[in-house]
Structures are given as C-alpha cells and as structure tokens.
Amino acid sequence: MRPGVSILIAVVSVAASLSPGALLGAAPSRLAELSSTEGVLRWINTYRGKPDPAGVPGAVGALSRLGAFKDPEQAGPYTGFVAGVIRSNPAKAPDLIGKMLPLPPGDEWVVVRAIAYSDHSDWRNLLRRFEERMPSRKVMIDKYLLGELPTIWQNPPDKPSAWQTMRSYVTLDKLRGVEAPKEIALHQSPELLDTYWGYYFATGTHRPILRIVEMLPMSKNHDDIEKLTIGNMAKYSLASNAARDPGLLGMLKQAREYSSSEAVPVLNEVIEAAETVETSRLRREALAALDELKRKGPESRRNMSFWGQVGQGAIAVGCIAASATGHIELGIPCVIGGGVSSAALGFWDKQP
Questions:
Q1: Computed over its alpha carbons, how large is the radius of gyration of the chain?
Q2: Which position has the higher pLDDT, 271 or 76?
Q3: Would you state the torsion angle of the CA atoms of residues 106, 110, 116, 117, taken in this order, to the nearest 10 degrees?
Q4: Is the pLDDT of residue 261 over 60?
Q5: CA–CA distances in Å: residue 265 to residues 212, 276, 282, 289
Q6: Which of 38, 101, 297, 314 is deepest in the core (most CB within 10 A)?
Q7: Of 209, 196, 214, 225, whose CA–CA distance to 335 is shortest?
Q8: Average pLDDT for 168-181
Q9: Helices 225-242 and 190-203, interaxial angle, to 10°?
Q10: Angle at 34 (CA atoms; ends 29, 39), nearest 5 degrees
Q11: Structure confidence at residue 225 (pLDDT)
Q12: Rounded CA gap, 258 and 219, in Å?
C-alpha cells in the first residue's frame, strides 16, 4: 500500500476508550463500525437506506474520540450529516441532541452548526435550549441567533443573474450614498461541498444535490483556480457516487429540468460518466484543466509554490484513496478541505 493511502485510511481503534455517553444509542453489533472513521463513514453512507437516528449520538461520540472534529475544514461531511438527521427527525431532535452532549469544548461547535444548518422549524429555540450545555460556544450561538452567521442554504450562486447584477448597480441606498449591509452568506468551498454530501447521506433528498449541481459551472471557469477546483470536485463526486447509487442518478436526470443553462451541459457529462462508469476520465480532464490554468495563467500562478497556498481551493484524496484500495463502498466526497499540496495533486494524478 502506498504511504499516502495508508495515512489517509488508517484505522484508529478506540473501542476500549469510548465513554458510555459516546456509545449511547449504539447496539453491540455496531461497536466495530464506531472504532474508526472509515467505519463511521461507511455507516453514514448507507444510513439513508436504513435510517437509524438512535445510533447517531454514538457515531458523533466516536467521531469526537477519533479527532474528526478538530479541523472544521475537514468536518463538513459530519456536520452536514448531523444537520440532516436533525431535520429528518424534528420531534426527536431535542432527545438526539441531548444524547450527543457532552462533548469536549473544542468539539461543541459541530452540534451548534448542525442545529443551525438543520433547517429545523424551531432551530433557534433548540440552540437556546442547549446553550447552557455548550458554554464554550456562546458567541457562536449568539451570532447564529442574531443572523450574523449564515446557515447552510444561505449561499449565492457562482454567477449572479442579470437582474441581480442590475439591482446591485442601482439601489436607493447607493443613490443616497449609504453603503448596503454586507450579505451574510456561505462561501463556495470544499467544506460546503462536503456539507451538502453529508446532508444528502442523512436525508436522501434532492435539495443538497441541487446545490452541488449549482457548483458544476465552476468546472468551466479557467480564470479562477479555486472555482475550477471546486467545480471539478463537484463534478467528480456526483459522477462517482451516482455510478453506484441509482437513486442519485435518477435525481441528477430530474435536476436537468431545474438547473441553469450553464449547469445542464456539465450535468449531462456527469450523468454519462455515471452511466458508463467512466469517472476516471473526469479526473483526468480536471487535472488537465488545472494544469492548463497553471501554465497559461498569470506569472504568479505559474509558480509551483502557488499550489501550496491555494487554501480553500483544496483537493484531498479521501475518496480517491478509498477507490484505489478497493473501498469504493464508502461513497465519501472527494473534497475534505484543508490546504492543497503538490503531494496530494501528485497522488491524484497517478491514479488510473
């Protein structure tokens, strides 16, 4: 096994050290699944086929023990998943959240964000209800309650419509010389892409998939390396997951009716790649596009050191490593956030 792969999918056994609270809701037969992030991811990926909300607090506790929440940029799938579970079980939400706590202070943010992202009809009161049990996140909770932090569906499209552009130029506030308030919205990022996937794994619903489809036009953006990367990750993750999920493939076909004229051609490529299981072609095309931008872009972006500074335009190889080692059943997203490195790009480039 290649060193890069072994690091990415290393199994960290923590069953013996899990607290009783972490195992709450977990049946004895699931102890093995909770002993590694790989096992929890596999359980998450199959969850929508057989929902088990009672097992979610145990999974959250296990992920906390495994250190999965230490880097928020890499925790998108888990945040989206917990948010989706809360949304799908509105009556059980208070009980489920209560059983997820307590968590170490450094991990409490996951529960706060999941509640805010859940789109639960009473999510604000849920935050108020559990505020005292998450004292280290009081500022974060207050900002969500005041509308100063965006929720999951508050993200602008990559390209504003002509009407939105016109309105931005001609407003009463601008005519009066008053600066308009800053829009509270999520930035299109690998973390957000992961969050949508987590939400889909929990709910199996169209909405997060439609949001991922909205990212597809960015795969044709040859002027911005961050957008090009995110768009290609959306494209590849949709195709690779739809290739083994008939329900998702059906959603993508239906999505053509509701997608923008810019998204439909790319979506057709995704559908064809999923139906023919030609996802490796999408990976090669994405790498070629990134390489072309590197070679033909401004001088500052032709410098290889730029690749180590991309930040949000991150390529991680979680699903690539999984498929390379035969673990394609994980179905995890291709983007896990964090800084991109030439090593990660090189690993991806070497895959068949």
A1: 21
A2: 271
A3: 150
A4: yes
A5: 15, 17, 14, 17
A6: 314
A7: 196
A8: 51
A9: 20
A10: 100
A11: 79
A12: 19
Express each pLDDT in 84-108 by its tens digit: 999 999 999 999 999 999 999 999 9
Q: Kindly state the tokens that stand for 279.
A: 């996802």
For residue 83, which of 296, 180, 75 has the smallest C-alpha distance? 75
Where is pLDDT greater, at 159 or 96? 96
The distance from CA 128 to its chain's CA centroid, rounded to whole angstroms, is 26
| DSSP label of 272 | H
* Cβ density class 161-200: b for 16+ within 10 Å, e for less: eeeeeeeeeeeeeeeeeeeeeeeeebebbbbbbbbbbbbb
- Residue 85's contacts (CB-CB under 8 Å, 6 or more residues apart) are 53, 56, 96, 202
| Locus of tokens 């999510």 | 123
CA distance 98 to 13: 26
Give me the residue label for tokens 């090593």: 343
Tokens of 204: 């199996």
DSSP 175-244: HTTPPPPPP--PPP-HHHHHHHHHHHHHH--HHHHHHHHHTGGGGG--S-HHHHHHHHHHHHHHHHHHTT
Please tell me whether residue 122 adopts helix, strand or coil conformation: coil
Condensed to tens digits (0 to 9), the pLDDT of residues 223-250 reads 787 888 888 888 988 998 899 899 999 9
For residue 272, what are the contacts with CB-CB under 8 A and spacing of at least 6? 278
**Domain residue ranges in the chain:** 3-145, 190-350
